[in-house]
UniProtKB/TrEMBL annotation:
One of its GO terms (molecular function) is ATP binding. GO terms for biological process: regulation of DNA-templated transcription. It comes from Phytohabitans houttuyneae. CDD domains: LuxR_C_like (cd06170). One of its GO terms (cellular component) is cytoplasm. This is Helix-turn-helix transcriptional regulator. PANTHER family: TESTICULAR SOLUBLE ADENYLYL CYCLASE, TRANSCRIPTIONAL ACTIVATOR DOMAIN. Pfam families: AAA_16, GerE. Residues 867-932 form the HTH luxR-type domain. The lineage of its organism: Bacteria, Bacillati, Actinomycetota, Actinomycetes, Micromonosporales.
Length: 946
């Protein structure tokens, strides 16, 4: 296989300049001696390291040649000492034209090719004859000359071809040559136009790797191969060819150094074989050293009795660079060949020497690589190292350490336990195929109930990752019952996961049973159990109980998470629990930290779920574009890992954004994908957010019957036992508004009474309940009290969209009660927030209400814009905030003046700073002072009364 077979990814510019060279031949047509004028010709030298794809580019040129004649040759190291070999390969097809050359030139070529007896060859006559023979061939038809690996040609051929290449453009001949930049005759002194071919960018590199691979490649494996290849096309084609399908799929380990494929051996094998044995031995140590560091590499080389000068010789030959952090190979394939072409005994000796001069993780790896058979002492050290370094060691590396420990373990029972431990780490890394393979191997080695129980827990969690919550719950519950008597700690872990599965299935009753059983079996409530118990209560609508349970252990839980402990349940569970309880700022700070740590430690399996949680937090906090970006990344990551549940949750988030913005087609597409996963996998927990988003879309567009029909489904399913999850999705006031609009207030009152007793557990939900009660009390004085309660709930202001909904409903109520002066600022504030969020249906509704009070025209434009100004156009609410803050008001004072929360003021100020290009309140005050009357739509001296 070669690079060009897969599309020449990332070579748009190179294809363009080659096209220019080759296309010049097409203007020529068929020239005849003394007849037509030749077309334009050109010469171009492509420079680049071995494996960069120069040969593929020359093949591309040959394919583009059309009717032109193509003459080609290439340097062969075995023929580099044989004079005229390169010329013979190039000119053989046109030797019949020798009679057209001047006699001396024809004689030189004939002598060079041993066509006539000769005692020597005149170099100039040979070069001139080469040029004239090419010119004669070009008179028959357009000619493209291709010379690959110029640096490896014999010297006489190289000099003759460079001589000709400098002159062929005048004859309408196109010449393309390739060479390494440091090769003889390949510098600027050769007089040719040159282009240095760069390595591929990461996107093109990944595309090439995936196309070239003989079997599907796991995402994490692809990441590693792309990183190792360093953008070198030959490496990207060769590396997957050297791996097994299981290794490519992530189901078998890929150890460092990566294996050398056939092309790497062909290109670099002879070069290494030609080196001095001491240099080869030093390169083997450097290849085995990895990131051991420069000092350790030098010490290991010396310990093996190799002269340090051997490394200096390798550097002088352009094979490596000696740097502070180690000996770096200039070409990643060279490292692979230097290691894997060495004898196994020599490799083990290199690793033993490196183990003696390294510590911790590097030492463990070198000991493992030096081991030839089961070695309990080395296996124990590998396992201890993985545990000791867990807080800062990438999870895949920890998994490989434990897996290698299992391979070096003799007793089958202990080997099986270590295989399961390795599988647990691989699951955190998102390597599902590897998990299944290790669990299968462990199952064949042991009948121990505890080990088999841990293995079944892993397999059930794989089911859960794929969105099959109902099946996972049943599997976990059965296994917990089986091992409860003999392995209570394993049973408790199984029951904890059973609770999670039941919660995601929407069955909080079963989840509570599992949590209580886990607590009973374990005898104590660890951090993970507390978080899961509180999460189940929150999903069931028992927010006050959930908060009380969390508050008992909160300090310890946050400390444990920040210390890097409790990966699975705490990392994913605590941020979403805080979000359900309305602590959006705390949840966002925590999830930001966890996402960063997942990226740093390659905890790939948890990343999609955390990204979904962060997307939901940004959605609620009013940063919808960031929410969409996180949800999009979560969808892609979950898709690569086969985590259908996380992908569906991300689609729900995107669907809710689309619903709020009135994008019906997008909303429907996102929700359809989520519904499919929900139905197939029994993910009942998706039912509420899916129907809530669908209902929001209809409500925003004013179709209250359709909105009621959607939202009533939530009510019916909750009555049938589905978790209402009111802290996660603000569906209650939407249902109440739809019910009131379609004259079904009694149904709404019943639902509010059922789900509101625990509202105090979450400030945003308390505000939602207050708005719901206000809508139900619309004909009484109590409505205003409830509206005030909704707007003033402490901690609820971090959700701009919902607070704008509060202001909109209150403004509409005030308008209906002939209090237009009070309604206008409420409606204006709501419209401004909706406009900032891009929630067009809601901005339109607020605008129509404003028009009805005859204070501010409807629509998103000002009725009477002020004087022309270079300042960006602000929304109405942004102008009000700008004037107040610019004239010295604090955020709290501005919030009180505009009937908003301080969080909403901060939200608008961020937008104002961005639009006006200011960075401080002082700059804003200066701008307001200079631009009084010039801020669009604002009159000089305007005041903002209530």
């Amino acid at each position: 296989m070669w690079y060009g077979e897969f599309g020449l990814q990332g070579r748009k510019f190179e294809r363009h300049i080659i096209d220019q060279v080759v296309d010049g031949l097409r203007s020529r047509g068929g020239a005849t001696p003394g007849g037509d004028t030749p077309g334009s010709g050109d010469s171009l030298l492509l420079l680049g390291e071995a494996g960069i794809g120069k040969s593929a580019l020359l093949r591309y040129a040959a394919d583009r040649a059309g009717d032109a004649r193509v003459l080609a040759t290439g340097g062969v190291p075995a023929e580099a000492a044989l004079p005229f070999a390169g010329l013979h390969a190039l000119l053989g097809p046109v030797l019949h034209l020798l009679p057209e050359l001047p006699a001396r030139q024809a004689a030189a070529l004939s002598a060079a090719f041993a066509l006539v007896p000769a005692t020597g060859v005149d170099p100039f006559a040979l070069a001139a004859g080469t040029f004239q023979l090419l010119a004669a061939a070009a008179r028959e038809r357009p000619l493209l000359v291709l010379v690959d690996d110029l640096q490896s040609l014999d010297e006489t051929s190289r000099e003759a071809l460079l001589f000709a290449a400098r002159r062929t453009p005048a004859e309408g001949i196109a010449t393309l040559l390739s060479a390494t930049a440091d090769g003889p005759g390949c510098g600027a002194e050769n007089g040719l136009r040159a282009h240095r071919v760069p390595r591929l960018d990461p996107v093109s590199a990944r595309e090439l790797l995936l196309r070239a691979s003989p079997s599907p490649v796991d995402g994490a494996v692809a990441d590693r191969l792309v990183d190792a290849a360093g953008g070198l096309p030959l490496a990207l084609v060769d590396l997957p060819a050297a791996l097994t399908p299981a290794q490519l799929a992530g189901a078998a380990p890929v150890r460092d150094p990566l294996p050398a494929g056939p092309e790497a051996r062909r290109v670099f094998g002879p070069r290494l074989a030609a080196l001095d044995p001491a240099v080869r031995a030093a390169l083997l140590v450097a290849a085995a050293a990895g990131d051991a560091g420069f000092t350790a590499t030098i010490d290991a080389v010396a310990a093996l009795g190799i002269d340090i000068a051997a490394l200096a010789a390798a550097e002088a030959a352009g094979l490596v660079r000696m740097e502070e952090d180690g000996v770096a190979f200039r070409n990643p394939l060279l490292r692979s060949v230097a290691y894997h072409e060495a004898a196994p005994a020599n490799r083990r000796a290199a690793h033993r020497a490196l183990a003696a001069v390294t510590a911790q993780v590097p030492r463990a790896w070198h000991l493992a690589a030096a081991a030839l058979r089961p070695d309990e002492e080395t296996a124990d050290e590998l396992e201890r190292t993985a545990a000791r370094e867990a807080a800062h060691l990438p999870v895949p590396e920890a998994a490989q350490l434990v897996e290698r420990a299992a391979e070096l373990t003799g007793p089958e029972e202990r080997r099986a336990a270590r295989l399961v431990s390795a599988a647990e780490s691989w699951q955190l890394a998102g390597a599902g195929e590897r998990v299944r393979d290790l669990v299968d191997r462990a199952g064949r080695l042991t009948g121990d109930l505890a080990v088999r129980g841990r293995a079944q827990d892993l397999m059930a969690r794989e089911e859960l990752r794929r969105g099959r919550a109902g099946h996972a719950h049943r599997q976990l519950a059965r296994e917990a019952a089986r091992v409860r008597g003999t392995a209570p700690a394993v049973a408790a872990a199984l029951l904890l996961d059973a609770a999670t599965a039941a919660r995601l299935a929407g069955d909080t009753a079963a989840a509570l049973v599992a949590v209580r059983q886990a607590r009973l079996v374990s005898g104590a409530a660890n951090g993970a159990l507390v978080v899961e118990h509180a999460a189940v209560l929150a999903c069931a609508g028992r927010l006050t109980e959930a908060r009380a349970l969390l508050d008992e252990r909160r300090a310890d839980l946050e400390k444990e998470v920040l210390a890097g402990g409790g990966h699975r349940t705490l990392w994913t569970g605590l941020p979403s629990l805080l979000a359900r309880l309305g602590e959006l700022d705390a949840a966002l700070l925590l999830v930001d930290d966890l996402v960063s740590r997942c990226r740093l430690l390659d905890v790939t399996g948890l990343l999609p779920g955390l990204l979904v949680t962060r997307a939901e937090l940004h959605l609620r906090a009013g940063d919808w574009d960031t929410a969409a970006a996180d949800a999009g990344e979560a969808t892609a990551a979950a898709g690569r890992l086969g985590q259908d549940g996380d992908a569906a949750a991300a689609q729900v988030c995107l669907g809710r954004i689309a619903a709020a913005r009135g994008a019906r087609a997008q909303c429907a597409a996102h929700l359809a994908q989520a519904r499919e996963v929900r139905t197939r996998g029994q993910l009942g927990a998706l039912a509420v957010p899916v129907e809530a988003a669908a209902g929001l879309l209809e409500l925003g567009e004013g179709d209250h019957e359709a909105a009621y029909a959607r939202l009533e489904q939530i009510v019916r399913q909750v009555e049938a036992g589905l978790a209402p999850d009111p802290g996660a999705v603000c569906w209650l006031p939407d249902f109440v508004e739809a019910a009131v609009r379609v004259s079904r207030p009694d149904e709404a009152r019943r639902v509010v009474a059922a789900v509101s007793p625990h509202a105090a557990g979450s400030p945003p939900f308390a505000a939602a309940v207050a708005r719901s009660r206000a809508l139900l009390a619309a004909g009484t004085d109590a409505a205003e009290q409830w509206f005030h309660a909704a707007l003033r709930v402490d901690g609820a202001g971090a959700e701009p969209f919902e607070r704008a909904r509060d202001a909109l409903c209150y403004g509409e109520w005030l308008r209906r009660h002939d209090r237009a002066g009070e309604a206008a600022p409420r409606l204006a504030a709501a419209r401004a927030t909706f406009e900032t969020l891009g929630a067009a249906p809601w901005a339109g509704r607020a605008g129509r209400a404003l028009s009805a009070v005859d204070k501010i025209p409807s629509g998103t434009e000002d009725a009477a814009p002020g004087p022309r100004t270079p300042l960006p156009r602000l929304t109405e609410q942004e102008r009000r905030v700008t004037l107040l803050v610019g004239r010295g008001a604090t955020n709290r004072e501005a919030a009180r003046e505009l009937f908003l929360s301080t969080k909403t003021i901060e939200f608008h100020l961020r937008s104002v700073y961005r639009k006006l290009g200011v960075r401080s309140r002082a700059e804003l005050a200066n701008l307001v002072g200079r631009s009084a009357g010039d801020i669009p739509g604002t009159a000089a001296g305007e005041t903002l009364g209530r």
